[in-house]
């Protein structure tokens, strides 16, 4: 199928040429066909993989099976005489340096890169099946590439931070992610969600970097605010819209929906309509996909006063984050609070009362209009990464994947 010269040229195994080829057809439709390519060195001169100097003295040679990218339907296995040279400069035997194969690796550099690219898009198990290599090989390659790729952030321009927590391993343990929200760069990921857990992040910043932080956006139900105040003297805490609205959905809308459904226990049809309306009520109106959904929502709200009230107050609450003037925002809040308290709807009144002490951090958004979708976006992306790498035992690897997914837009 191939002649040795063509394959040598196409192969790009610098310093080596094809000595011979063997085709091994796979059996059945699941069997993978193999192309074995035996390589031989073109020259006696080698480069030391430690110091880069040249040498002609071979210490020993070991035949290695190295995987390369597939050719058409053939899995490619290279048989490479791996030479160790005697280096007079650094003393001792060292592997020959090859630009297409890293020392002690069993796959070529281009296959490593291909595996790394695919590992960003699909579960490791599928990548392993696609290239016919082991799951652990895929993981080791992806991890090594991520370690090279994920760089320490440039702290000089960083004035804003965002913090969020997410569940590790089925929700038993938690981790914290810290981001730069303007350039969407993940700066730090660590296990835990307590003050102590995030302290190493602040301790890693020098005094100038800590003083430079103007605002930190976060969920209001965390201990992060105290830690920010302790380390960043110029930072204001800003509470994030996404979390407040999610909390409102859980504590107010869900509760009122269940209460109303229970109240209507004798009217089976009405009860069913309310019970199945969770999605409609929590979704943004502009995200409803069909006219039918919009009509269903409107009918539901028209028929039920309590649901109508909590729905309208949800929309009004969101407006707080649109203001750029703290005075106007405060007036809106006061009106909102009064309507909530006069509604007579217990979950809504409780929510309003609990939200009140956080008002400063909500109004701070007027001065630091950080885009609240950043935390939500990162939160969702983390869930996808977790799903793709199910069976994640290696937290370090998981965190590297999160950091690599948000390298920062300005890079
Ligand atoms: Zn050397």
Tell me what the structure shows.
The structure is a single chain. This protein is an alpha/beta fold and 411 residues long. It folds into three domains: 4-106, no CATH class; 155-240 and 372-405, Nucleotidyltransferase, domain 5 (2-Layer Sandwich); 242-367. The chain has 17 helices and twelve strands. Strand 3 (46-47) and strand 4 (54-55) form a beta hairpin. The two termini are 45 Å apart. Bound molecules: zinc ion.
How many beta-strand elements? 12
Taken together, the total number of domains comes to 3
Q: Radius of gyration over alpha carbons?
A: 30 Å
Structural class: alpha/beta
Q: Summarize the biggest pleated sheet.
A: 5 strands, mixed
Reading the helices and strands in chain order gives HEEEEEEEHHHEEEHHEHEHHHHHHHHHH
Unreliably modeled segments: none
Shape: elongated
Ligands and ions found: zinc ion
The DSSP helix count reads 17
Short description:
This protein has 411 residues and is α/β, with parallel strands linked by helices. 47% of the residues lie in helices and 20% in strands. The strands form three sheets. Strands 1, 2, 5, 6 and 7 form a five-stranded mixed sheet that branches.
């Amino acid at each position: 199928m191939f002649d040795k010269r063509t394959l040598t040229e196409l192969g790009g195994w610098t310093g080596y040429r094809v000595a011979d080829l063997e085709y091994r057809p796979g059996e059945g439709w699941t069997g993978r066909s193999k192309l074995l390519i035996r390589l031989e060195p073109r020259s006696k001169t080698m480069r030391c993989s430690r110091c880069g100097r040249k040498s002609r003295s071979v210490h020993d040679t070991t035949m290695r099976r190295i995987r390369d990218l597939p050719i058409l339907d053939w899995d490619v296995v290279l048989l490479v005489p791996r030479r160790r040279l005697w280096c007079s400069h650094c003393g001792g035997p060292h592997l020959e340096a090859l630009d297409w194969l890293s020392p002690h690796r069993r796959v070529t550099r281009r296959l490593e890169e291909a595996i790394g690219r695919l590992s960003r898009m699909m579960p490791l198990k599928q990548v392993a099946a696609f290239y016919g290599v082991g799951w652990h090989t895929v993981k080791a390659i992806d991890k090594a590439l991520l370690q090279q790729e994920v760089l320490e952030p440039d702290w000089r321009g960083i004035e804003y931070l965002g913090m969020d927590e997410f569940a590790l391993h089925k929700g038993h343990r938690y981790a914290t992610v810290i981001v730069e929200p303007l350039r969407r760069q993940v700066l730090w990921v660590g296990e835990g969600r307590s003050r102590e857990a995030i302290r190493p992040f602040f301790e890693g910043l020098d005094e100038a970097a800590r003083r430079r932080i103007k605002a930190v956006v976060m969920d209001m139900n965390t201990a992060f605010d105290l830690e920010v105040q302790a380390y960043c003297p110029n930072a204001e805490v800003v509470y994030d819209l996404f979390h407040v609205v999610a909390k409102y959905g859980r504590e107010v809308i869900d509760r009122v929906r269940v209460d109303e459904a229970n109240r209507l226990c004798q009217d089976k049809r009405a009860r069913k309509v309310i019970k199945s309306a969770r999605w409609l009520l929590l979704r943004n109106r502009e995200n409803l996909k069909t006219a039918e959904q919009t009509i269903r929502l409107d009918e539901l709200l028209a028929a039920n006063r309590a649901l109508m009230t909590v729905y309208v107050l949800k929309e009004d609450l969101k407006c707080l984050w649109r203001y750029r003037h703290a005075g106007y925002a405060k007036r809106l809040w006061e009106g909102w609070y009064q309507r909530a308290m006069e509604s007579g709807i217990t979950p809504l009144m409780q929510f309003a009362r609990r939200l009140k002490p956080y008002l400063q951090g909500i109004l701070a958004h007027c001065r630091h209009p950080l885009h609240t979708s950043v935390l939500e976006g990162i939160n969702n992306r983390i869930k996808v990464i977790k799903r793709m790498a199910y069976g994640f035992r290696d937290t370090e690897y998981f965190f590297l994947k999160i950091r690599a997914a948000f390298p920062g837009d300005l890079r």
